[in-house]
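A quick aside before the break. I want you to see a complete sequence-to-structure record at least once, exactly as it would be stored in a machine-readable document. Don't worry about memorizing anything.
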Amino acid sequence: MATYTEQIKAVILDLDGVIYRGQTLLPGAQQITAWLRARNYQVYYFTNNSTKTRDSYVELLANFGIASDVEHILTSAFLTARYFSDNGLLPATALVVGEAGLVEELRRVGVRVLRRRGKRPIGYVVVGMDRRFSYRKLHQAQQAIRSGATFIATNRDATYPVEDNVIPGGGSIVAAVAAAAEQEPLLIGKPSPRAGELIAHQAAIKPSQALIVGDRLETDIEMGRQAGLWTCLVLTGISTAQEAAALPPEERPHWVISTLADLPTLLASPPPPFSGGAPE
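That is the input. The structure line, written in tokens, reads:
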């Protein structure tokens, strides 16, 4: 009889807290990604970080000895750009609070990007991670939203894992803009199920044939659950095994592993009974 995991054809790996922390490659990352490719799994990388383009992530992974290409990398910046093109919103003008990766992905699909508010009408305010965030940027985003611009957030990750610590994430900036504008944003990145559904379509598989491995219960695992994917929490980033066990069964990851080095064993095993069952 086939095990649950023999269904899995694609593995989606988060980056920050799963493949690396800061500038440090995490245990098993290089070896396990090579192991997956050698066994014909389709390997995708999906990060909520909006600061880099997909091309930049290809280069970053290559520097860690991990091969990939832009077709197998998704970022919240790329998904935000896809939101404009897929929903017929172009041409569009957006005030962007974010870094170069978000600006470049939006410009590639034809969004007119503004870095400061002028006199012309602004249709959208797009907010992501911005390490040069300032009161001026907050004020301009607030005023544009209060004047009718649609508020879009690339992600709401409050923190971002680096070596032996965490730093403020893009979600902390989104929260500041939301508080100032007194309006909640349209959320594009995880935990929205859209990315999982997009990957399943691109890989020509059912959602139940994909596994997402992430370090955050409220984004990676929640997205996987909503999209009907298998889910695995890895304990090299933000969330803990204790936090996973405290969730209702239907919200828990199907597996919890210490590092990516444990992934081959996972793929040979059924999910534990506390996990809430197989995805439908």
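Two observations worth writing down. The CA atoms of residues 51 and 101 lie 5 Å apart. The chain has two domains: 4-48+191-275, 77-187. We'll return to this after the break.
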